Amino acid sequence: MRVRTWRLWRAAVRCVVLAGLSAASTAAPAVEVRFQPVAAGIYAHIGDTGGRTYENEGLNANVGFVVTPAGVALIDSGATYRSARQIHEAIRRVTDRPVKWVINTGGQDHRWLGNGYFREQGAEIIAHASARADMHARGGDQLQGLKAALKERADGTVPTLPTRLVEGNDVRLELGGATLELKHRGGAHTPGDMMVWLPDRGVLFSGDVVYVDRLLGVIPVSNTGRWLENFALIERLQPKTIVPGHGSVTDLATAQRDTKDYLLALRAHMKKAVDEGVDISAAVRSFDGTPFRRLLNADELMPGNGSRAYLEIERE
Fold this sequence. Notes:
By secondary structure, the chain is of the alpha/beta class. It contains 9 helices and 12 strands. The chain is 42% helix and 20% strand.
């Protein structure tokens, strides 16, 4: 009898503990999506500049939207089904017009894994043709990585490819009288990286071509040479306002300092090392990143950025 009583007591305690853990998980704060005006009819949400966490729900990047008489053009759909729904709710606090288009600016998870939610709402999902293969190849791994950090907050997310692919360097679209120019120069952070230029307002949504406040990441699918070609286009456009892929809304001078200058320094150092036959590990160690250590994540990202830039230049 005593054994049975003990077992019942132990089971009851276990239930209480599990309930407490579940309640604690549920009580964890959800990401708050807040859109700030950038120009008339143009809005941006500035995501966390750190890594993907349970609290930020993987939405550690910027998203934006443009309001037109015919509806809303959303720029990037978020990292999960859940965060996409929160993005939509935040849009509804600004306008009651429907989301007609979702433009994916690249193949990184927080640019497109929310597509499934918006497709259910009837939106057309637009991306560059160069993004599709990257999305298809990495989508499953991206989702598994998010599930490890986000747990149940990734539930319902299904990698959903764009419904409309555009091709070429420059594509001009119009929605409700608003002109959106899609700019692709062979990729940058990912092969499908594409910028959204609003010429009438002088506003550029750069996607992951521009990072400010934090160091950019060179990943295995990145191309730093083409990244600089994209940046040269930005300099020709001379935008009044840049909504970067990561970091605060900014200007061209800041984008040059935090993105272009780092890429130039990295490539120059690694090219010299390759030309002189310096070993990759020695080349990475000898890179002087001092001017860029003020940027968030610099110490963490610099070694990997250096080795991938070295290997890229070696193939050129």
